[in-house]
TrEMBL record, chain A:
This is Extracellular solute-binding protein. Pfam families: SBP_bac_1 (PF01547). It comes from the Bacteria. Residues 42-61 are annotated as: Disordered. InterPro entries: Bact_solute-bd_prot1, SBP. SUPFAM superfamilies: Periplasmic binding protein-like II (SSF53850).
From TrEMBL, chain B:
It is found in: Cell membrane. SUPFAM superfamilies: MetI-like. Residues 97-304 form the ABC transmembrane type-1 domain. Residues 1-27 are annotated as: Disordered. InterPro entries: MetI-like (IPR000515), MetI-like_sf (IPR035906). Keywords: Cell membrane, Membrane, Transmembrane, Transmembrane helix, Transport. This is Sugar ABC transporter permease. It comes from Nocardioides endophyticus. The keyword Cell membrane applies. CDD domains: TM_PBP2 (cd06261).
Amino acid sequence: MVADEHNLPAPRFTLTRRATLKRGGLVLGLTVPAVSALLSSCSDSDGKSDPNAPAKGEKYGGTGVADRAVDAAKALGISGPLTLVAPSGNVGNFEPFYDEWASRTGIKMQSLELPIGQFTDKLFSSATAKTDAWDLIAIQPRLMGDLIGANAIAELTEYVDKHQPDIDDADHGFLPLQREYASRYEGKAYAIPVDGDNWIYAYRKDLLDDADNQAAFKSEYGYDLAPATTWAQYRDIAEFFTGDGVYGAADLVSSGWSFWFWELRYASRAKPQAYYFDDDMNPLVNTPEGIAALEDLINLKDFMPKDIPSWGYTESYAAMGKGEVVQETAWTSLAKYLNSDDSAVKDKWATAPMPGTEIDGEVVSRHIYAYGGSLVVWNYSKASEAAYLFAQWISSPEISGRMTAEAGFADPFRISDMGSEQLAEIYSADVMADYIRVAETSVPEIMIKGSNEYSNVLDENITRAFAGQISAAEAMANVESAWNDITSRLGRDEQKAAWQSLKSTYPQG
Amino acid sequence: MMTVDMRERRPEAQSRSGETAGGAARRQARERRRLSWLTSGPLIVVLLLLLVFPFVFNIWVSLTGWQINQGDWWKAPWIGLDNYQDALTDSRLWGSLLRTSLVTLVCVLVEGGIGLVLALCFAEKFRGRALLMGVTIVPMMILPVVNGFIFFMLFQSDGPVNDILRTDKAWLNDPWSALFVVALSDIYQWTPLMFLIMLAGYNAVPPNLRSAATVLGASRWQEFRYVVLPLMRPVIVIALIIRAIEAFKLFDPVFILTGGGPGTSTETISVYLYKVAFNDFRLGYAAALALVVLILLSIVGMRAVEQVEGRVKSQKEETVDE
């Protein structure tokens, strides 16, 4: 039918810019309140949506850490909002708890998510500008020294003394790693830990237990196939399983990640500890131990996915989750991922103590504490005490277990969470059973001022050596020279003091 | 013949208020000057604040050892020309400069060449021209970060490019192939810009000159070679200069694709400066490096502009002579 425009009824709506704007405004005007009402009726401002949270008006009880934070925050009589800034992917650890905090204290929270690659630049440029745009920051603890140097974060000793977050409590305090490395700098309180980030060694139990594989492995390598106890065995297992789209390992060697994997190998190269510096801040990396640690990593080259030099942790987790990788060393959150519904190897993997190095007939095995996560209070915050109190509350024994179980990728960090059945289900019972031992044998990454610069130099030279541009020995010689320059520039005496303080926190024996 | 300067003899006309004509002119000139200061003054102040102050501040910072993690800039130690001395022997600086120059040269020439060919293809009207033109300029509108990510995905060892080529090459692990991917992503994104500039340049060539060449029996190639190309030359050179300046600042694709790695083998000057300033927090040294690069770029840029001006001038003179 051909429409005759003269016979058509007058259109009910005319499509003009004005009409569209008017109608849009009307629709928006009606929709926004309706949606808000719907959302507010669905959301639970009393924090009762979480069955693990006590009802509004009731105390958390327990250790009292959470209640002390709530009571003190209420007494401040402010409403916020406080801004928490975090690298992308990390805000998910905190946001699920904002409503509960707001309903109990009256202080609203909001997040600002920054791309992970631009996180440190933004922090430091804001420190230069002394902006008060945010109150709390979720940082890698290794940045603490640099942030303190830039006057960017506030010392928390006064608040810690006043509100008692029970950092060192033997029953419900923070794990040794978090206590020593992630909350203090040169003995002073600057941060509240909120992420465990112990490292684990995960392997495909089904493949290593397979009788055919065991027989073939023994005939090829002359010893039994079992979870690697040394880095040499780790390489052998990687070599054995590589082929047909399966890779023996997926340890990260890309820019921004590789230095942690070198540190992990270096940590087990000496007894009692393989330190980064001597007492005068002379680097100890251009040594047979440092070079061997790098060679351990380079020796895996043929047994890892081809794109590994450009991978981050999400790619390596996904590869193992898809069943393409036989073993990995990574953060504890790998266990969480491998047990998730996204994983194709949910019941096919297990963990074992970190491989190490045989020294004087004894295998020295070390885990490391790297990346991590702490909340620090921005030095230019206008509500620094309220910001601190939120950090105390969310890291309290009353919330910490829920935070690691229900939200994001944070790993357990309170001693009191070690017996949690819920966490044992999420991470696997053997991971949780071994958690304290791992925490007690873990050594820190370079957590002194200049950490970024020391790590960058290391990273650049590792990636160059892995790409075959320079030898392992050349790489370590470059690192030694550059580290000396950095130390001189930052002030050798100041760096010596910071290093001595960090060194004293290494586990003994 | 005797000439008389009438100005000497003419008595100054007096206004009703008794003011001479010269006095009025001087007063008007003063008022004009005052007006121009009033109108342009705020702009000059803003420009001083926005351009001159940061530039002077940058020079000052470059003479200090300021690191953000060492405290405030005004407390930074004065180290004179040490940063510049270090820059001279900084192999990463010169390596990244060389690499950036190479990528810039390749990208700009390829983009210019393809842009010119595309401009000639789109010079005449044909069916679907508008649609095709729209499609051609789409890459230019993609965010550079997104563009970098697209190429990151395309060139994974199990990505579509390797599927087509039936290989498992790890493109981003080898310095040369990684640089190739970086250059390719830049060419993909910025060829449309060159195309648009070239098309505008082509359209500015007077049609009667081309018609005259055709009437005189010139072939299409001769018409292009001897009429169109010489007249387009200033536009082409300006387009190349503008693009070269932009390409020299190449950052996003490198940052996304390789992060400057493996090692430092794909590091461009922008990526290196970024790392010095925001990964190592050495703002004093970064300021010195930025100034060194600025000086080098200015010299090259000014030489190029001089060349263009010289050519345009000689072209005009040739036209007048004819």
